[in-house]
Amino acid sequence: MGMDVIGRKPTNEVGEYFRNNVWYWRPLWDYCNTIAPDLCEGVNGHYNDGEGLNAADAIKLAEILFSQLESGETARYETEYREVLANLPRHNCVWCHGTGVRNDEIGVSMGMPTRELDEAISLVVGRTHGYCNGCNGEGVENDWMTNYPFDVENVREFANFLRHSGGFQIW
């Protein structure tokens, strides 16, 4: 699933269209809410139901984003965001219930209980066979939030879009 952000009255090609998959969009919109709550809080930005900003507010948000980029605050935010994700605890895998071997009907039908493990995983888990496609045979998986990346370049691309969008709608 993705978020298609359409310029209302674009001034050039850059302002016509901005797209993020849902994984990149949610942290981007959260960041916008963090640095410009007065502009973004009233917008239901996590849904693609046509909400957005008018031209004047899109320009204001672009200016704020560019200011944050130029000052290094966006890069600092990215570093802190990545640190938070890196420090999230890992959880028992939902598919193998923490065993590292998927023994449910699907796992059995795909030969996972007898599948040979890669040498690197085998050294970590202490066995040579038994696999789970949810955790690579380890029994634990990363927190779901680690699927939501944030990066400076995505912010820069969105700010450029905003500057030329004439306002936008999220579809």
Outline of the structure:
The chain is of the alpha+beta class and 171 residues long. 44% of the residues lie in helices and 12% in strands. The chain has 2 domains: 2-86 and 146-170, no CATH class; 91-141, no CATH class.
Give the biggest beta sheet: 4 strands, antiparallel
Secondary-structure-derived class: alpha+beta
Tell me the helix content: 40-55%
Figure out the total of helices: 7
- Average the pLDDT over all residues and give the rounded result: 97
Radius of gyration equals 21 Å
Task: Give the CA-CA distance, first to last residue.
Answer: 11 Å
How is the topology of this model organized?
Blueprint: E1 2-7, E2 17-21, H1 22-35, H2 37-40, E3 52-53, H3 55-71, H4 73-86, E4 91-92, H5 105-109, H6 119-125, E5 140-141, H7 152-165, E6 168-170
Please describe what this structure looks like.
The protein is α+β, with helices and mostly antiparallel strands. The chain has two domains: 2-86 and 146-170, no CATH class; 91-141, no CATH class. It is built from seven helices and six strands, in the order E-E-H-H-E-H-H-E-H-H-E-H-E. It has helices at 22-35, 37-40, 55-71, 73-86, 105-109, 119-125, 152-165; strands spanning 2-7, 17-21, 52-53, 91-92, 140-141, 168-170. Helix 3 runs antiparallel to helix 7 (152-165). It is elongated, with a radius of gyration of 21 Å. The termini are close together.
Which key phrases capture this entry?
alpha+beta, about 170 residues, 6 strands, 4-stranded antiparallel β-sheet, single chain, elongated, two-stranded antiparallel ribbon, about 45% helix, 2 domains
